[in-house]
Design brief:
This protein has a six-stranded mixed beta sheet, with helices on both faces. A four-stranded mixed beta sheet has the order 5-8-4-9. Strands 6-7 form a two-stranded antiparallel sheet. The relative contact order is 0.16. The longest helix is centred in the N-terminal third of the chain and has 22 residues. It is an alpha/beta fold. Strand 10, helix 9 and strand 11 form a beta-alpha-beta unit.
């Protein structure tokens, strides 16, 4: 399988993740590594299987290869876009039924099956005007339960201790409405902090693809090229974007790694989770004689 990559395809998020790791590593080890795009260091790699970055220090011939895999950012951006489109369609359907400017605070980690999009649109068009009529300025109302009552595949999240008596272990995922203004007839998409359960679910879906036991990790094939080019060590970074609570993702990451055969990780010496300014190592090959 040929993986093509061009110089101009570098994503700012990849560099930010790699730089966060290098800054952390240099602080931990009193080193002065700097990163460069691998296809700038090895131009012959352009258009062929390669990895993201070369990390080396001035005055040293040794270097290590870094590959970055996105865990959360792309999924959250895609789902946020889905909600924006859904909100636009809702506005067209129910705008005349609203009194004031209503905000729908959607958790961007909540995914809905695209084949169920029309059904969800219909349910929200029923629920929102009714629930919005009781909103007070500055207040929020959770309409997740009302949506779940009419939409069977609405996701669920873990209940708090106070909610356990009503819902048991799992309750309908929250979806808040707020009244931004009593003027006009408007529906806008607001901002909502994702729940930990939904973040973990999103992370799991992505890790299933990154560490697919049938195909084997793409990163292993990429970093094998780094080894062939002379890398002293290789590093796979799992970019968790701005989420610094990396402990949320550690158990499932370990579970996915445990399902892989040794040869499927043969070219990956170290695996780290990176989120915000936090770095946490989740895998270190026993075959490595020195840390990167």
């Amino acid at each position: 399988m040929v993986i093509t990559r061009k110089k101009e395809e570098e994503k700012p998020s990849e560099r930010f993740c790699a730089q966060t790791f290098i800054d952390w590593y240099n602080t931990q080890n009193r080193t002065a590594y700097a990163i460069q795009r691998a296809d700038l260091v090895f131009p012959e790699l352009v258009g062929n299987t390669n990895w993201d970055y070369v990390a080396r220090q001035d005055g040293s011939d040794g270097w290590f290869g870094i590959e970055v895999k996105n865990v959360l950012r792309e999924a959250l951006e895609r789902r946020s876009s889905d909600w924006q489109k859904l909100c636009t369609q809702l506005k067209e359907k129910i705008q005349t039924e609203l009194r004031g400017t209503v905000l729908i605070h959607a958790d961007a980690t909540i995914a809905f099956p695209q084949q169920k999009r029309k059904e969800l649109l219909h349910v929200l068009a029923e629920v929102i005007p009714h629930e919005a009529s009781t909103l007070q300025m500055g207040g929020l109302k959770d309409i997740g339960p009302a949506v779940a009552a009419k939409f069977s595949v609405w996701p669920r999240e873990r209940s708090t201790l106070d909610e356990y008596k009503q819902w048991g272990e799992w309750r309908p995922s929250r979806l808040y409405l707020g009244l931004d203004s009593r003027q006009g007839c408007e529906l806008k998409l607001g901002v909502s902090s994702p729940s930990n359960d939904n973040l973990v679910r999103t992370c799991q879906e992505r890790l299933d693809k990154i560490f697919d036991p049938q195909k084997g990790p793409q990163a292993n094939r990429q970093l094998a090229v780094a080894k062939a080019k002379g890398a002293d060590s290789t590093v796979l970074l799992l970019d968790c974007w701005l989420v610094s609570e990396l402990r949320l993702f550690l158990p499932y990451t370990h579970q996915r790694l445990a399902k892989l055969k040794p040869h499927q990780l043969s070219a990956i010496d170290h695996i780290y989770l990176v989120g915000g300014q936090t770095v946490d190592e989740v895998h270190s090959s026993s075959l490595v004689g020195r840390r990167p």
